[in-house]
Write a structure and sequence with these properties.
The structure holds three protein chains of three kinds. Chain A is of the alpha/beta class. Chain A contains nine helices and ten strands. Chain C is globular and about 65 Å long. The chains are: A alpha/beta, B alpha/beta, C alpha/beta. Chains A and C meet through α2, α3 and α4 of A and α1, α10 and α11 of C.
């Protein structure tokens, strides 16, 4: 069973500290949700873990199965098992989803080893059926001209094919109507297994009706300020974030 | 063969002989600084030595060469007694009127603007009173677009022109007007306007070029220098309405410094053959140059527009839109080049030439070019030539508008995209009237 | 389950094909070898009237050809280098240090077994005989100045299709040859067409009779083996009324320390309703000056399509053109260029409209890597009193590194209000976000860059026959190696 440990993580963008000492452990099979108001560093956390060059980790540690990933390039982290479902996935004109995924899988093989083409397509089509994605989808260029919902489905398909150890889902629900949200949630739910740890980053409780988390954390000003189970999400939905801010202010005083 | 090469040699100066140049120098006031006279002498030598454009010159590709004669022109001596009625009736902060190269009349600035240091005067006056500023900026940018010979001719025979200086932080709300008239059947004129906009200043300049009568076969070799210091905003509108038998060369240079912006719009209506060169240099981050042009080209006219947008610093922007409407046997040439220097990353440059073909005899040539040496840039260009959209024409006709009227409406619609870029409504309206007047002639 | 047959799968399945068939013979590194040949015929070094008389005499040419050559030499010597618009690098060509004619004989063999050993080995290493068996209707393999091998499948020759080298064409089909030779590209079209007209040797002569549609492509392969050599093939393709033919050419040369010159002239004639598709994948070694003139005449309802891909050479100057001579004729140029360090790909297209309702289309994509420079030059000409003519041009440049360079110099000339032209060009780079996105999926930065570049040209690469598009993808991957980081 795999495990992602985030220890006292500090992250800056262009010398401005955004994440200010965050610790969290995600074990295989667990679904964690991080909630919080806009601008508290939720997206920064996921991009920093994935190794985006604009984000500098100034201190702290991120371990995947006990091994630090911070010295690794973004692609090495991905191959080690970190998957980031982007809030705004890039469009890649001219590169079809089929070719793209194939290249991504090929990159995970040893030098000289060739991907088995027919096995690959069998698996791809099976995953697509599972996620109710039209076969024609694979011949379209990655995210090129996709609707918001199509982009998110494309992310989930990639996740299903690449079989990560940890999935960081950055605002996966943004821009989705309720049907698309359900499809995405179904996809994640079918992938839930003791082999996969999930970190859901979301602003709204809505997504958590479909993907029920084991743990809910509230992030504020670059830190986790409150943790609980799924009932915490309901509480946030009912009361908003202000009571957390008040609690924090009281604790300081 | 030998006969033609002989005629080329004698035609290198045409009417602008060494004697004519000596007479010109002698006519200038003795107060002018020596360096300026020395520069004029050097310019004349350069003019006389440089060959006329040849068919094989890349910078004259598609231009009619045989009609570029320097013969048969006269340098005006007597002062003019009367100029035509100014065609643009908008309120101005100040106005200078030149006839045959000499100041004819002027309306001074308000006492308030003058007290704040704004200067609107003649070049001859400025060469004496503001010598350092003039020396720094007058014809300081070398010609890069092919007309070195005509630029040298301009410098050699330049009599007088406008000098405008807006000091740091000053805004001049109303436009400053400069009018240049050529009067007489074969008159040659050399208009010049120099604008130095100080840091964070704001000003609008409207320049007009016109003839006494539309039958005069005149010659014009004009130039202007626009210099926008740090944070300055400068709007320039030039209207070229020389006689339909005139031969015109105009060479404009714009320098844009950090966070400054210059908007220039050139309206081309007159001359039988008009060459217009426009150079914009984006010299520091945040600089923005917007280059606009409108041309109404009629039978017997050739408009030859050459532009250069040089991005010399990172994070600079230029946006060019040149529209030509061609009627009768009109011919147009648009040749534009965007240059991005190796370190000018984050350049945002655009260049667009649209030709509206209104007759079966018209000829439009487009040479939109790019030379890019930095990779993190956004550079695009486009060029189209097409007739009025038959669908649109039909739509108007279906509403009861006659075809000719429909075409006219659609042509004005074609120009609106450019005019809409101007922020001042009264200017916009005045230009619209000017263009429609020409169109309905 | 339906097997993957959609077009998107092309590069995948094709990749597998590439493993079985590692070269279509256009891989520069695979082509970097040479044999020490004893040439039976050698015109020596330098250019003079004697050089030309020698070439003409060993070819046993008719007097009119010698005369044509000598006239062309005069023309060549009288014309200046076109450096007033083209690169000054042209001045580095020393015409007196080039060998203008080298061969083992003037008659190509009809079977590979008859081809001399070293030459046969060369083409085997390049994979030519194998491709011939697999998917070609005919092959001509030129080694330095002459074709060593030339053959056409019986089924095609029985239809009356002529596919020989130009030496044979001149000898055996003089009436046909003379009628069109030098008519599409006159000797004095440019300095290098004049040079070719003086010293030409090799190249293909193709005639397709009325109504014949050649099902498989005909291929020519041009190989330079000798150092300081100049290759000057001359190709003439005539597609008679209603016929169709696809011609492909590939080329390689070893990497010598001195520069080599390749200067071909290719003339196409598509008669009424005929279709010609001419595909080039140019991957000369990086010391080759590749200065080629290519033009076709399309008669009524005919179609000429140039698919031109330039990856190799030191300097390429090539602007395939179509003269749209008959009503409703169509012309197309699809151009891909990749310029790496030390390379200048100066390519483009010319479309000359000369009849009503003719249409032309140009799509050019270039990639500049490192200090590479790619230039697009285009001419679109629609003269007076034509109607219903249309041109559409699209130029896109991709710049990989901070100091990569691209230029675009189109010239569009339109008369009258019954035609329309549209030109668009853009310059872009591969966005950092896109690279990060792909890295996040486990691709290295280099792989991500390769994929992005292949994506950039994907729509054009699909127009190549599959074997070529696979090779193209592989060549691009090779070129992109080490372009980042």
């Amino acid at each position: 069973m795999s495990q992602l440990e985030i220890k006292n993580l500090h992250v800056s963008i262009a010398d401005k500290e955004i994440v200010k000492g965050l610790s969290l452990t995600i074990k295989g099979g667990e679904v964690h949700a991080i909630m919080g108001p806009n601008g508290t560093g939720k997206s920064t956390l996921s991009k920093a873990i994935a190794g985006h060059p604009d984000y500098t980790i100034t201190s702290g540690e991120v371990l995947l199965d006990g091994v630090s990933i911070l010295e690794k390039e973004a692609d090495e982290r991905a191959r080690a098992g970190i998957f980031l479902a982007f809030q705004y996935p890039s469009e890649i004109p001219g590169v079809s989803i089929a070719n793209f995924l194939r290249a991504a899988l090929q990159a995970r093989l040893a030098d000289g080893e060739e991907i088995d083409a027919s096995g690959y397509y069998k698996r791809l089509y099976a995953k697509m059926d599972l996620l109710k994605i039209d076969r024609k989808f694979t011949s379209r260029a990655v995210n090129d001209g996709f609707s918001g919902g199509e982009k998110k489905r494309c992310e989930i398909l990639q996740m299903a094919m690449l079989e990560p150890k940890v999935a960081l889902m950055d605002e996966t629900d943004s821009g989705l109507d309720i049907d698309a949200l359900r499809i995405v949630a179904d996809g994640v739910n079918t992938m839930r297994s003791p082999e996969l740890g999930v970190l859901l980053i979301t602003h709204y409780q809505r997504l958590l009706d479909y993907i029920v988390p084991d743990y809910v954390h509230v992030m504020y000003d670059g830190r986790i300020v409150k943790s609980g189970d799924k009932t915490l999400a309901h509480e946030l939905e009912a009361k908003g974030y202000d009571w957390i801010k008040k609690e924090l202010a009281n604790a300081k005083a | 063969m030998s006969a033609s090469s002989l005629s080329v040699a004698t035609n290198l100066v045409g009417s602008f002989t060494a004697e004519a140049f000596a007479a010109h120098l002698a006519s200038l006031p003795p107060s002018l600084p020596a360096w300026w006279i020395a520069r004029k002498r050097a310019a004349y030598e350069k003019f006389a030595a440089l060959p006329l454009p040849a068919r094989t010159d890349e910078s004259w590709r598609f231009s009619s060469i045989s009609t570029l004669t320097l013969d048969g022109f006269t340098l005006p001596s007597a002062a003019a007694t009367q100029v035509p009625h100014a065609p643009i009736g908008i309120k101005k902060a100040a106005k200078l009127v030149f006839a045959n190269g000499r100041l004819f009349s002027h309306e001074p600035l308000s006492a308030e603007l003058a007290a704040r240091g704004v200067i609107v005067t003649t070049l001859q006056d400025a060469l004496v009173k503001h010598e350092a500023l003039v020396r720094e900026h007058l014809l300081a940018q070398p010609p890069k677009l092919g007309s070195a010979k005509f630029s040298a001719l301009h410098e050699a025979f330049l009599v007088d022109g406008a000098f405008i200086h807006i000091p740091r932080g000053i805004t001049v709300e109303q436009p400053i007007g400069v009018f240049s008239y050529a009067l007489g059947a074969t008159t040659a004129v050399f208009p010049h306007t120099l604008v130095v906009a100080g840091e964070n200043s704001r000003a609008t300049l409207v320049e007009y070029f016109g003839s006494g009568q539309d039958t005069e076969a005149q010659f014009a070799a004009g130039a202007n220098d626009l210099y926008a210091s740090h944070g300055a905003h400068l709007t320039y509108i030039g209207k070229q309405d020389w006689s339909h038998r005139a031969l015109s060369f105009q060479s404009n240079s714009t320098v844009v410094r950090r966070d400054a912006r210059v908007q220039s719009l050139n309206v081309h209506l007159g001359a039988r053959q008009a060459r217009h060169e426009s150079l914009s240099q984006l010299q520091a981050p945040g600089a923005f140059s917007e280059m606009l042009a409108l041309t109404v080209a009629e039978s017997g006219q050739e408009f030859d527009q050459r532009t250069l947008q040089i991005h010399q610093a990172p994070n600079t922007k230029s946006d060019l839109l040149y529209k030509n409407a061609l009627r009768g046997t009109a011919k147009t040439i648009f040749s534009g080049l965007i240059v991005v220097d190796p370190d000018a990353q984050k350049t945002d440059a655009y260049q667009s030439n649209r030709n509206l073909m209104l007759s079966d005899e018209a000829e439009a040539n487009s040479l939109p070019g790019l030379e890019i040496q930095a990779n993190d840039v956004r550079c695009t260009h486009g060029a189209t030539s097409s007739r009025i959209d038959p669908e649109q024409e039909f739509y108007l006709q279906a509403r009861g508008i006659a075809k000719a009227a429909a075409d006219e409406l659609l042509t004005f619609g074609f120009f609106e995209e450019v005019l809409n870029r101007l922020s001042a409504d009264d200017l916009h309206e005045a230009l619209r009237v000017l263009i429609q007047t020409k169109f309905k002639k | 389950m339906k097997p993957p047959t959609e077009t998107d799968l092309l590069p995948d399945s094709a990749e597998a094909a590439a493993v079985e068939n590692p070269a279509v013979g256009i891989d520069q590194s695979a082509g970097n070898f040479s044999y020490n040949m004893e040439y039976a015929f050698d015109a020596g070094t330098g250019l003079s009237e004697d050089t030309i008389r020698y070439i003409s005499s060993v070819k046993k040419e008719a007097p009119w050809i010698l005369e044509f050559r000598l006239k062309a030499l005069k023309k060549f010597l009288s014309m200046p280098m076109p450096t007033h618009w083209a690169t000054k690098d042209l001045e580095n060509i020393d015409f007196q240090k080039i060998r203008y004619y080298l061969s083992q004989g003037q008659k190509p063999k009809r079977t590979w077994d008859e081809v001399p050993d070293d030459i046969k080995k060369t083409f085997e290493r390049l994979g030519i005989p194998e491709q011939e068996r697999k998917f070609l209707a005919g092959v001509e393999a030129q080694f330095d100045s002459e074709a060593a091998y030339s053959n056409i499948k019986e089924i095609v020759s029985k239809q009356g299709v002529i596919f020989v080298n130009s030496t044979e064409g001149l000898r055996e089909h003089p009436e046909l040859f003379k009628k069109f030779f030098g008519k599409v590209i006159p000797t004095g079209d440019n300095k290098f067409s004049a040079l070719n007209s003086a010293v030409f040797s090799g190249g293909s002569f193709i005639y397709v009779p009325p109504g014949v549609k050649v099902a498989q492509p005909l291929q020519a392969y041009f190989r330079i083996n000798a150092e300081n050599f100049g290759q000057f093939e001359r190709t003439l393709i005539i597609a008679d009324e209603g016929s169709e033919v696809v011609y492909m050419e590939g080329c390689t040369a070893p990497k010598f320390s001195t520069s080599t010159l390749h200067s071909a002239v290719v003339e196409l004639v598509a008669l009424k309703g005929a279709k010609i598709q001419y595909i080039t994948v140019q991957n000369w070694a990086n010391n080759v000056f590749n200065l080629v003139t290519k033009r076709g005449i399309a008669h009524e309802d005919a179609e000429i399509k140039w698919i031109d891909c330039n990856i190799g050479s030191r300097l390429t100057m090539k602007y395939p053109g179509v003269v749209l001579k008959g009503e409703r004729a169509r012309g197309e140029v699809i151009s891909i260029a990749l310029a790496n360090d030390g390379q200048h790909q100066d390519t483009g297209a010319k479309m000359i409209h000369a009849a009503n309702n003719t249409t032309s289309n140009i799509v050019a994509k270039s990639i500049s890597v490192g200090q590479g420079r790619s230039t697009y030059r285009g001419v679109v000409h629609i003269p007076k009193h034509l109607k219903g003519c249309k041109n559409n041009t699209e130029c896109d440049a991709l710049l990989i590194n901070t100091n990569s360079r691209t230029d675009t110099y189109p010239a569009i000339s339109v008369r009258g209000d019954k035609n329309s032209t549209q030109h668009e060009a853009s310059v872009s780079k591969v966005s950092e976000d896109m690279i990060f996105y792909m890295q996040q999926r486990g691709l290295t930065e280099g792989q991500a860059m390769s994929l992005a570049v292949n994506g950039f040209i994907n729509d054009l690469a699909r127009q190549f026959p599959m074997e070529y598009s696979v090779e193209l993808k592989r060549l691009i991957d090779l070129e992109m190696e080490g372009s980042v980081g």
